Amino acid sequence: MSASVTRLGIIGGSGLYELLDDPRYVEPETPYGPASAPIALGRLSGREVAFLPRHGASHEHPPHRVNYRANLWALDSLGVTRVIGVSAVGSLDPAIEPGTLVVPDQVVDRTHGRDGTYFDGPRVAHASFADPYCVAGRELAVDTVRSQGWPMRDAGTLVVIGGPRFSSRAESLWYQAQGWSIVGMTAMPEVALARELGLCYVPLCLVTDVDAGVAVGEGVTQEEVFAAFAANIARIRELLRDLVAKVGDGPDRACAALKPQPL
Questions:
Q1: Which CATH number fits domain 7-257: 3.50.50.60, 3.40.720.10, 3.40.50.1580, 3.40.50.300?
Q2: Measured by CB atoms within 10 angstroms of the end CB, which terminus of the chain is less buried, N or C?
Q3: 41-65: b or e for each residue (b if 16 or more CB lie within 10 Å)?
Q4: Element (H or E) spanning 26, and its range?
Q5: How far is residue 118's CA from residue 133's CA, in Å, rounded to a whole number?
Q6: What are the residues facing 178 on neighbouring strands?
Q7: What span, in angstroms and rounded, lies between the C-alpha atoms of 77 and 52?
Q8: Where does phosphate bind (predicted)?
Q9: Of 93, 105, 109, 211, which residue is the catalytic one?
Q10: What confidence tens digit (pLDDT) does each residue in 185-215 have?
């Protein structure tokens, strides 16, 4: 199918490496090198879908080494106009328990050293980012999550840290004191790059743990995160099937209109 065909893109996080039945794989060339893995093309709920595992097919790319620019560019080149980003996050609020699905409406970037823009010269542009996520897409996601009976939060702030280590207790307590809701490692610059391309981006954040400054005991472990995601993988797949069936064709006009024009 040509790049003019509209597809829905799904970027899978830790633990979500396969999604489509009988996919075919493509490796679009980008100015930024290869994407994290070959992109699977297939159908889900009767829709053309492009699926990309963010960390690679075998989780070989840590969060600070993911080629975010190549990933979003590759999806855009395939005709993707709407992206659902699935990720594992930690809770900064004791009331947001593991197993909760959060659809955040704000993001705070605490990463460093990542290639976070397509406009780093000689072309320059400034993206509007007051509301980082697609408003209409978020509302649809919230309604879909509720219809499935998930414990969920329909808003909140996701703070993105550099990783790959988890937070210290002091860092976690500081994030909590700011009123931020959840903590992750991959939303930035992924969301900002989607905005620069005029893509509608919808976040689905599965809480897998309570962060170090909130929990008692030894703190967060990698094993805990992967086990929690694995325990919810069937529900995530079902959620994605339902959400994909409801998403409209074509770009979200509001998101497309926010694509900055180079100076």
A1: 3.40.50.1580
A2: C
A3: bbebeebbbbbbbbbbeeeebebee
A4: strand 24-26
A5: 18
A6: none
A7: 13
A8: 14, 54-55, 87-88, 186
A9: 211
A10: 999 999 999 999 999 999 999 999 999 877 6
Q: Give the pLDDT of residue 228.
A: 86
Q: CA-CA distance, 76 to 80, in Å (whole number)?
A: 5
Flag whether 64 is marked binding.
Answer: no
Rounded distance between C-alpha atoms, residue 235 and residue 49, angstroms: 19
**Contact (Cβ atoms closer than 8 angstroms) between residue 13 and residue 186:** yes
Which two three-digit tokens encode residue 82?
Answer: 């709407």
Query: 40: part of which helix (H) or strand (E)?
Result: strand 39-44
209 an active-site residue? yes
In whole angstroms, give the CA distance from residue 250 to residue 164. 36
* 55 annotated as belonging to a binding site for a ligand: yes
Active site residue 105: no
Q: Which of 76, 105, 109, 209 is catalytic?
A: 209
Neighbouring-strand partners of residue 86: 204
Is the model's pTM score more than 0.90?
yes
* Residue length of the chain: 263
What is the spatial distance between Cα 10 and Cα 80, in angstroms, rounded to a whole number? 10
Q: How far apart are CA 47 and CA 24, in angstroms?
A: 15
pLDDT, tens digit, for every residue of 82-130?
999 999 999 999 999 999 999 999 999 999 999 999 999 888 999 999 9
